[in-house]
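Exercise 7. Given the components listed, write out the predicted structure of the assembled complex. Treat all entries as one system.
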Amino acid sequence: MTHMARELTGFLYPFIESEERDGSSLLVDLAASAEEKVAQSRRLRTTTLERCASRLAQAGEATAQRFRQGGRLFAFGNGGSATDAEGAVDLFLRPPSGRPLPAISLVDDRAVLTALANDVGFDLVFSRQVIAHAQAGDVAVGFSTSGESRNVLRGLEEASHRGLLTIGLCGYDGGAMAASDAIAHCLVVHSESVHRVQETQNALVFQLWSIVQAHLGEGADA
Amino acid sequence: MTVVDTTLAPVDHRPAEDLAASALSLARRFAAGATMWCVAREWPSHGRHVAVEFVHPVIVGTKALPAVNIEGADITSTLRLLARPGDVVLAVSSASDRPTVDLLRRAEAWGLTRVWLGAGPRPSSGLAEHTVWLEGTDAARSARSGDLVLLYHLLWELTQVVFEHPGLLIPEPECTGEACITCSDEGRVAEVRAVHGDGSAAVVMNGGTETIDVTLVEPVAVDDLLLVHAGVALTTLGR
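Answer.
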């Protein structure tokens, strides 16, 4: 039964769903749904990588330049995006190939995060760390699927103010991040599904990393 | 300048079907009160990501479900204490990560349902009830290019869909009778809890504690893994 049919008939036959005992047809539907979503995810990645190609090339070249001059990369985000920021840091620090590069996650340290959240508020948890750690030659990468996360935006604003190269990754229409002058390279994934946005953001970071590796040479097979 | 191709390696029909079966199992376990323990030793950020998906869903109105990421030097000791029979362990790893393989073998004795997500060469079967694998890919690259994230996002999405079918949230059919190959004709994995010194030992097996004959495999020690058939330990699988 389609979802709509279920809604229309549900009040007449309230026992149908709870009487459903055979999972085999649901398994077929679930597998089909998974395949459809894989296809959606792939399309979104392909179109986004194409659309962002020149922006990625510029961001990659600028990031490589910072690394070449001794800069480090700082990454941050909230929730699933926090873990994507950690994943990005891991990719630069412990790459599957090429040259390991200095990167630091600003979501790793529970003591720092909870101290800042408790004492000065969650909006400032990244910007205060930028003030503490970052130098003008560094790179800041902020993740926010909505583009509206205030703490990510504040972190990137502080980074820009201090002369860091700023890169923003966001979804939907880019939100406040797309409109911000503080973000030198804003990569927007045009989707309203947080999951599809995050998958493509991973691909964007991977591409950024591979461009950086290509610029830095030295055994990168990228 | 060359650029790495980040498009997904082809996902054939099998991962989609495996995901569907995993989701049905997972929803049934959650409905029965299970906690899902997430372990991603090689890529801890994925363990945290998948846990936050279940605990704090991005889609308003979907169920918050108990998932906990476990990290640290000894995930096996931690989970031995925390996990209860009927819980789920979700491992995200490559097939070659030995501590994950060790954990999954023990998890069978502890009575956990095992879901294993990964990429690269496929692991041997029998280590998990559900293995969802992106074959033909490089694990280290899949871990960072969005492929693995897609895999557990889909697991979450499909699990939520199963909750829309309350009639299917019944426990999975139990293994009964002599015809069941898994429990009857082949040995079961057991973990030693106490050695009695009289040729017997207390073990945990299928999530319960039993006393078995260990004369064929002595000496045994606490935490040894044994293969047991009809109350007799036949071989040692390691410690």
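Discussion: Chain A touches chain B through 50 residues (CB under 8 Å). Residues 56 and 207 of chain A are 8 Å apart (CA to CA).
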